[in-house]
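Q: My collaborator sent me two sequences in one message, no labels, and asked for predicted structures for both. Can we handle them in order? The first one she listed is below.
A: Yes, handling them in the order given. First sequence, followed by its structure tokens:
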Amino acid sequence: MKQNGLIIFLMATILFACSKNKLPLYQSELYSITDSAVVQANYTARALSSTEITSNYQSPASDKISALMEFKFSINGKDNEKLFAMNHKYLFNTGEDANNTISLAFGSDDLMQDIDAGGKALPPNTKLTVKLDFTKVLQDFEEKGFFEAVTGEKIYKSDFKGLYMAGNTAPLSWDFENLHNKGLELKDSDGDGVFELELVMNPYNPDNFTQNHWKLGNDISKYPQLTSGKVIIDALYNLGLDETVMNIENDGTFRTGKEWPGVWTRDVSYSVFLSLGIIEPEICKTSLLRKVSNGRIIQDTGTGGAWPVSSDRTTWVIAAYELYKITGDEEWLNIIYPIIEKSLQADLKTIVDPVTGLMRGESSFLDWRKQTFPKWMNSTDIYESMCLGTNAVHFRAYEIMAEMAIIKGKDATIYNKVAQKLKTAINQHLWVEDKGYYGQFIYGRASKVLSPKSESLGEALSVLFRIPTPEQSKKVISNTPMVSFGAPCVYPQIPQIPPYHNNAVWPFVQAFWNIAAAKNLNYSALEQGLAAFYRPAAMFLTNKENFVADNGDFKGTEINSDRQLWSVAANMSMIYRVLLGMNFEKDGILLTPTVPEAYGNKIVLNNFKYRKAILDFELLGFGNEISQISLDGEKLEKSFIPGNLEGKHTIKIQLNSSIKDKGKFNLVENTFSPAMPYVSEKERTLSWEPIDGIKEYIIYKNGQESKRTNSLEYNPVNSYITDEWQVASSATNGVNSFLSEPINPVNENSAYFIDAAYFAKASTLPYQGFTGKGFIELSKEKNRKVSMSFEAEADGKYLIDFRYSNGSGPYNTDNKCAIRTLSINNETIGVIVMPQIGKDEWSNFGYSNLWEVALKKGKNVIELSFEDYNENMNVEVNRAMLDGVRIRKMGLTTE
């Protein structure tokens, strides 16, 4: 009651202050923003001046940690002790001098039962001892040479790297890929087969939360100076400039954030576009060129060894061209043109999906697999996915390439055609008519299906790049789900996945959303979006990387950083690209201001350096309709500032202070989808375990809904050997899970396997896990071209993929994805992508992407070759072990 009373008192104080002569900038049940403060529950951030802010925000995260912990163990940093979401549970003893020791055997069913914590909280800095009996695994290593995990993966003794603990209570984490650098490795110090780990749970350091005071510490006088009449906005803008200076490295590049040294391609690219290209063009040029190698744009280390599994390096294209439009620098255009051309040509040969015409590769910036993709999807599956944001970026990249070609007097036909085909494909395959926005991605294996989840960055980019029709654009802004604390990366959320991309808001995504809302003159969406951006910056006194969508707190996400570069850049973009509405063209700036009523009256931006000019802006009123605009006192017919100005100039804009229709937006509760079924197959019958809260299960055949059922099993009849079956759970609220991993209920004679070692010399490397005579090594020095033959019994369509291993790096990072070109009977089919599977895990074999091909009756020659466009991001290492080729004829029944 005391807390509620305080909240009411604070809100009343705010309303009283606002009632005198000003509207609040934003007000909701959870937080409010005035011209000088942000109030959220018991916390207040207040601007004392345009260069100083105080905040009493303290993350409540450690106060609310449950004494019930879920956990499991991990071999080699993978989720392989139990099936996904099947975890051990432990209720901590919390009494004085309580002892907490967990003793288990790896894979044991002990501590699996549900426990009611009864609201019991875990005290900070609780000590825990863990003892894990690993003797069964070690025995299998010695007797069989491998241990078969519950997931079906064979872990060979030679591939064993370490044993780790994962969980939901800090310092534990579900970030399996990075357990090795979080101090979570268990050790067998005495060789008895029992691995041990000592932990301090719910670690608490009162200094490790957030600062409570910010005061300008750097000279920002060379940057544009803002006076908006809203001291909180002015102060937060100056905070952004202050952190911009802090992010400039001694080598003249931008670091990615306080916790992230170095230049990262997509981070710096989005940052350049948002605002850094405007205020620091030379540092942006240097930073962008740092991400070029061998004349191509670098795809940073990423899933399966970076490009082409991750393929959004084309964000660089958008940033580089925006720099050209900002600066008008023809020399810069000459530098970037061949880099972009070479990069896009490689993409055209490597990532175009032949069925849809969309570009393959994981979602732009959403590059932490389990955070947005179904758990079963491996790096190969992610390569074959077709994601909204990534495709929006590729569309704009080819559109830019065409624009640059025209400027340089070259033929732009092919690039225009690619761009328009891609635009058509996005609208045809990703638009969800009954939702009124685009789906997240298309995923699957032989058959693909569209995930109808929203993806906020992709939705915003699609609108900004004019991919939808004007009517569709309005629908995207009014229908895409927003939660109380802002634009969630995706919606709905995935259950049992901790916040990072899942269940999180990223300020730079919010910024792109706000710019898109402004372009569509949706003031309701814009007002909420601006508040969602400014609230965390004020409360945390830094431009954080992300925060939890559920509660707006920065501490609950898997990883976070202060002064994250693209969050910093997003800060200033709210002034430049939203309120002043700057659109940079090659010959000037088009101004389309969009000012919500509460932000209006008078906005002054002085010392804006543009090419050879210094511009002072004065923006009066609110709304978006310009009643008058002048340059140095001379009336302008259009709101366009020519790029050939020199010296100091003054631009005055008078808005008509009228908003006819504020629009609407889709504010929703932060919802989680139901858990995805884990389907097994035995004797051609599919079965799965029950899931709580499920209304029914949906059976899919080849990506199409086949049947709805309340049963926990299904027997596909009259099935073909290449048919894929999947199951989704559907909750009572109508929200569906992801589709389960595709299953082919086939007989043992349904597929052909061609042993590569019969067509090239078998490798003598001591790896295991191959199926037949042996395996061959593919590298830039060995077997650059391999030809294999297959006798087909009949003409027809076949599915073909390759069994390989790639231990050049971990499956979540690095840059050594192996790539080859597939040809059949001297006709080029496309690329074969063999992503990294695990660091030094050369005995861990998996399958490449697959192709549907036409084979003739009789002998067919299947060739893998290394071509110049098969260069990966590492260049030096492009290596895999090839076990053989799997071939399945389409149209054969399983009977």
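Q: And the one she listed second?
A: Here it is, processed independently of the first:
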Amino acid sequence: MRLELMVNGRQRVVDVAADATLLEVLRENLHLTGAKNGCQEGTCGACTVLLGGRAVRACRIPAARAAGQEVTTIEGLSPWEKEIYAWAFTAAGAVQCGFCTPGMVMEAKALLDRQPDPDEGAIRQALKPHLCRCTGYQKIVAAVRLAARALRGEVKLRAGEAAGMGRAFYRPDAPAKVRGEAVFVDDMHLPGMLYGAVFRLPCARAKVKSIDVSAARVQPGVVAVLTAADIPGQRYQGHIFKDWPALVAPGEETRYAGDALALVAARSSREARAALDYIKVDYEELTPLTSPEAALAPGAPALHPKGNLLSQTVVRKGDPEAALKSCAHVITNTYTTPFTEHAFLEPESALAVPEAGGLTVYTGTQGVYEIHTQLVSLLNLPPERVRVVNRCVGGGFGGKEDLSVQHHAALLAMATGKPVKLTWTRGESILCHPKRHAMTITMTTGCDAAGNLVALVADIVADTGAYASLGAQVLERACTHATGPYRIPHVSICGRAVYTNNPPAGAFRGFGVPQSNFAMESQMNLLAVATGLSPWQIRWQNALEPGDTLGTRQVVSADIGLKETLLAVREAFESSPRAGIACGFKNVGLGVGTRDVGRANLVVTGGRVQIYSGAACMGQGLEAVLIQIVAEATGLPATLIDCTLSDTALTPDAGCTTASRQSLFTGEAVRRAAADLAAVLQGHTLADLEGQVFRGEFYGATDPINSSKEHPLTHVGYSYATQVAILDEAGRVAKVVAAYDVGRAINPLNLEGQIEGGIVMGLGYALTEDFPLAEGIPVRQALGRLGLLRSHQVPAMEVHLIEKGGTAYAYGAKGIGELATIPTAAAVAGAYYRRDGKLRLSLPLTGTPYGRREK
């Protein structure tokens, strides 16, 4: 069908399919990629454009309907509008991953064109069609108000603070993200590029007897169809455990509904997906194991050669069984938490490009070197012939650590000799990538008559799903943090991670700790009632202090700021009888004896300093952090400092962006390299140092969990936090007050944004987000059905940053990306417990105005 459209003031003529959407035409035909493809269901708002001056979701608008109307995309804004919105969103700290931002800007333009001075309520209502998983919305609302003032001429555009420690230095990546110019992988187009698609079975467990791809190979546009026999290297891969097949072979069983059996490459995405219908598989559907109890039952089929128990973790200190007998008050309960979907706004995408006998893979991952290692093994290529490059990463939260699309795009590219892009639909993303672990936690906690904790015994069972991912490590953190940040002399914690036929479970913001924190903090509320203490007081008198020991027997260091966080929120907690409180803590770095290294190179070139590091930024602002550290160490202005991240051909391996580690580990590596540069700069200019390279490395040595040392060092550092959730009279969360021990704040504006986003994610976990399964298959495979909170549902948030100096590394910075979410659900649960006296033992919470009813 030939279609004439007026786009950004230009008449455009395109040939499209009769059922093409406006978004498809804009992105695939006109290559206007500022409108993002986040959901294909009109739910996320990332594809927002103006149609006749009205904001619409382009993924839901038939292209033919746009004929005769003016279409305006983010690219079509005037230079002055682009400058204002880029400045306002940057200055307000409203940009993190940036995937949702252009859509937000177009919604803001539509609002401000018709209402130049809207109040906060009007802005939140206007943004109602949009999702943001990073920021928590509060700073986006502030950005729209700031843009409105600038458009009215009431405020001048100003620069951020100079780079350096503790300054609101503007993120250098933000303006391009606001203008829709930042490149995500699915925005990329290359001449002759093919499109990939993946065949899967409609059940969670099946015996594959045969796969016939002959009919698919002759379908229109199809260039290649691959099965397991076409893999040149090691077929089984995995982040840590190599238990996940890139393609399931005949004679094997599928272990979950996301398992891939065949791959198609075709000249268009439509042709690739159409060809999937012609792949014929003879299989026997088997009864799936959908719970740890079923998987551990006698006679249960083994899902993996080693059986159904992935791992077991034991943490022990003192003699808790005997100590419980001496306690004045003992509380025992069993808590359950659900699987949860990450719901990052950018679906997984990879573009694999054959080059000079090797391959370059463009993707959006939390660890380019982890992906590189697995691709080298899978493709059976020398490491130097495989390059992995990150484009912008549209959110991750732990969900982009595993292989997802990279290996399949790479296999197709190597087989065809052509570039191949493979992008999951939102439904595929929800079906396939690892989730937050569902856990069952039985906990017994005892204290003396005065409310001092004496002993804790806990049993934790984690459903790790079909494959290991990082399940063993997640279980470790759930166990080592189950004590909460409290002084407990006697501890016994046993955890098991169990394989099932459910979707794999892996890393998710908090890494197992939100689950055990919910249990422990609920126990604290019950002990407070038993002893007659207030929830604040029982936490205060049991809060860890320097010299105390954790459950792992590590000695608490002098930089702990837990009590300071409690003091910061005390007034807020005591202001309302409907306030709940929770504390939390989280390790910084991989720890527990795992080798953990941050690396960076500083190269002087062209009178400038170029930072190179393999660390990934997925929206947390790492580029700004590293520039600020170099500026602090050298005195150089940010205008002379550039940063290149996540390219295995250019940047040194700095480890995966996980465990809140990059600000400390890679930040310290950068500081060391910058200190060397600063020493040489004495009496010299950058021009004198042209071509010199300054290398920095930081290795954070730690001990295993069950080290024989009396006081092992299980982690290099810890961050601590306290949150207060306050309900209104109707029982809705009206405000969250949060205090965070951050060591030293490199960029307070960015830190606030990280914490606010984490709080909102925690509110969803507490109140609205669930992930039900039926026979191992997600019931809700649409973004709009996941219970994600929107701007009009989010309470006011007040953040306090506590700076006690931190560790000796990276100027004292301690990561808080994971900790941001950890105490929220427990604080909200505590608020409802104080409101109605009902103990809620599962998440999301029942009996609240947010919709979930008690079973």
